[in-house]
Amino acid sequence: MMKYKLPLLVIMGVFLSACTEQVDLEDYIKSESTRVIVVEGLITDEFKPHQVRLTRSDKALPDSPYEPVSGAEVTISDGATLYYLTEDAVMPGNYLTDSIRGEVNKTYNLIIKLNGEIYSASDTMVPVLKFAAPEGIRLGSLNPPKGNIQSPLIVFGSNAPAMVQIRIDNPHPDSKYTQLEYYTFPGVDADNILPSAVDANLSYDEGTQITQTKYSLSQAHYFFLRALLLETEYKGGIFGSVRSNVPSNVDNGAFGFFGACAVIKRTGTIGKDGRLH
Amino acid sequence: MSVNLNHQRLHSRMYKKIALLTFIFCAASIFLQGQTLLEKKVRLESVTGSVSDILNEISNIGGFVFTYSNQIDIRKPVVIESGTETVRTWLDKIFGPGSLDYIANQHKIILRPKSARDHRVTICGHVTDSLTGEVLIGATILVKALSIGTSSNPYGFFSITIPEGAHRINVSFMGYRTVSHDINSTEDHVLNFQLAPSSYQLDEISIVAYDEETKVNINAPEIGVHQLSAAAIGKIPALAGEVDVLRALQLLPGVKNSGEASASISVRGGNLDQNMILLDEAPVYNPSHAIGVFSVFNTDAVKDIQLYKGSIPAEYGGRLSSIVDIKMKDGNSKKTVATGGIGSISSRLTVEGPVKRDRSSFLLSGRYTYSDAITQAVKFMRQNNFRFYFYDFNFKASHVFNSRNKLFLSSYAGQDVNKLGILSDVTWNNTTGTVRWNHIFNENLFSNTTLLYSEYNYNIRAGYINPFSWNSRISDFTLRNDFTFFSSHSNTFKFGFSSTHHEINPGSASVRSNADISLPVFKALEHTVYLSNEQHLTKRLLAQYGLRYSLFQNMGKSTVYSYNSSHEITDTVHHNSTGVYHTNGGLEPRVALRYSLNDRTSLKAGYSRTCQYLQLLSNSSFGLSAFDTWYPSGVNLKPQKADQVSIGYFKNLQHDLEASVEVYHKWLYNQIEFVDHARLLFNPDLEGELRIGKGYAYGAEFLLKKNTGRLTGWLSYTYARTKKLIPEISTKAFNANYDQPHNITAVANYNLTTRVSLSGNWVYATGRPTTLPIESYGYKDYHVSVYAERNSIRLPHYHRLDLSLTIQSKERPARRFTHNWVFSVYNVYARRNPLMIFTSRPFADFKSSRGIDAYTISILPFIPSVTYNFKF
Global pTM? Predict the structure, then answer.
């Protein structure tokens, strides 16, 4: 919300005067929690342990972190092989596979058994398109080689939907963050058409190593993430669309999404000229 | 045998033919002889005597006799000067031309009074403002003694047929002195009326009091109609001093806005796109400025606004819920006048005057905002290319070629520019142009031919890292012809046709990271024909009934998808020709009835079926219209239809108070909703995002209105419900976005002195329905809301008070320059009316907090403004 407040207020300031006021939601609606299971899971074609996180829903304005779900029996299968996930002893509610690698074009099925209920979800791992220059990021520098990585949260007009992470090693000492995440979506939405204020805290210096990791998104995964952003980062905007529930690919009334993503990476180093080599 | 029979038949036919010819010959001979009698020249010497004496004289000289009815007064004295004239001429001189029928045969001339049926004359003309020459729309022309009346049409033209003889005609119009004019006419003729505004007197004709029988509210057959003049709108306190047509309409019963910041209207539960907004007959597709806050209509250039929300006459169509017919001024045809104003948001200037007095006139009007001057004055904004402004430009010219032909040219152009430097641009503009030709074929037949063009296009550029730009456009080119046939005093027929070529580009884009994207351009033809009649069935019962047929044809190159029940594409058909590939159409019957209980009270009823072939795809929760896309009906999208029935009770009370109650029920078919998080922009598969269902609206509107005196205004209460049933959105009917059951509006203007007036309006409405979260869950670092049923919760009640004080300059007859100051305050007690409720991480600690809070956004608290208006 704060990210687009600047342009919003500029427009409002000229023609209108807006007022935002905190209210008690309970004055309008009796909040309740059905304590529905929430799935946040991902399998990729990287060779590593893949994670499924299970939590429970809470009332509209929760007082505490969402409760993790322990004791579930979680499996992932590709139709031929069944992978059992074990709950992390340190992080309750986190279920991990052994180090395995997913395969492109395979459909992965998630099965969760909990207290006699069975929840399932599936997603197909679509190929990931190679990086397109400049793929949404912009290196901005007034004082090379020092500079910032700038990116909006959503980059419009891509050939295929994707999620991209940027990670920097050896960052500039002033940098608050070492990682940012953004999405490349094919469409355009009025909700987020006013760009976010750029997060310029991902600062770099000469020798900083920058790694971009791109995850392919199936159509259902794209719709889920787009709706997720519309209902969170872009909620309440001046061009906001009508509010509605984020879809889910988990059945039996559960929330969340289990996705399968193909991944590519590329790495570069900031040179003396402030450019990525 | 058969030969003989044929022979007999042949003879029989010959005899019949001969007999017929003989009869025709004899009849013609008698007729011609009779005519010869009437044309026979007779010399009379100067005679003074009775009619009987002179008839005897003519009879003796001519050698024939007169036969006459005892209704003819033959003892009446007559003075005849000597001369030689035909018998017909002598009779005309004795009895007056056209007063009797002369039927002549071989030796006899029968004199017979003309029957009442034969003795009718038609009087036609225009009703205009005596000071400006502007035609007055809807003026009442009444022959009270006969209870025969009519009203002037949108071009000020009227035609009334009455029995020959002496009559008094009253012509009246709201805000003008009623004119009473005596005629004694035996022939059809033209009679133009000039009405003086209430504050002026006309010397040459008498002034009579405003008559109950001339009041449109109880006499006109239409139900659910409001007429507002620009002058009336000017008295209503305005947001930031910007007098606004659509915001004024929002104060009428049955009309709601789409949110505090919006000048858009919802009429009797209809969507924002279900209102046809016409400016000199040209549709205006986006009637808003400043992201919907103000409307595009400069009231200095506007003459008259007519809102049809109930029984819509057959000549109008194209939208389900209402017609807003806005007529621009023609321009002062008497003298050159400049009017203008300097307001808090914008300044405006209008110049109008005659090119040739009473024949040709022009009007030029412009409005421009100051906000651009502010952005250019602030260094930061100037350097970063921040610009915010809008402007309007109106032009109109008219020319009277002769008493039968008049030409009008009118045009509107307006643009909004909102530039946020390198971050984004949002610009849109409307353009309309109309050429109209009024032609009066005769006293009974009036026609108007219109050629019009309307275009709305908008551009968006956004994205700092990955910029893209987007253009969307809709344009219309229309030819229409409307006829009014004043058949008799009890029947007025209207008929006509129109044909429109629509071209819709729902979006073409340029994206840096990708190839340009273009959605297909849609082309369509929309044709209509209509016929209606306004008929006085009895002295008390007046009916207006008609039938309209509309036809919508999709044409040109296009890609049409087929969908399964899951809205997945199953087939694709490419239409590569420029011809028509799909046709939709429908009959639209319209009926309105008025039954007069007495001269102050009437009952009315109406039924309308309406069809709509263009829809605005907008999923905005605010009703802001910057990103809306117009979309045509077609193979997968049936036209929207609506049936509305309404009944009303209208009564005029003492002290010039008008009271009315109207009850309506509206059924809406093929209503469009969108799937959750629909992708409406840049989506070639847009139809897959739409869900179709039904809707209904019903309500009761109570209105008490005072038009004259020191205190004017109205008080209204409306109870209205609007529901939608879209099975794929919700299994049960849900509240539509504009469902606000209780609405109260009070609008008042009080003249404290002749120079100072105080105006105010107070508005109350039940809170708008909204969708709120009932639960939440976490995904990544986001709090994701889970919502209760759509539109099941209501925002707090809406209410607001606006006030304005107008101080007029002293009137000095010798001085043309007049001015006034308007001090106004919008939302006087700074009520924070929430526009929406949303949940977010706490603003105070947005970045690091993991909590979540609920907030309301409210806008427009206590907006004071000062406007200086002038005229010279």
Answer: 0.82
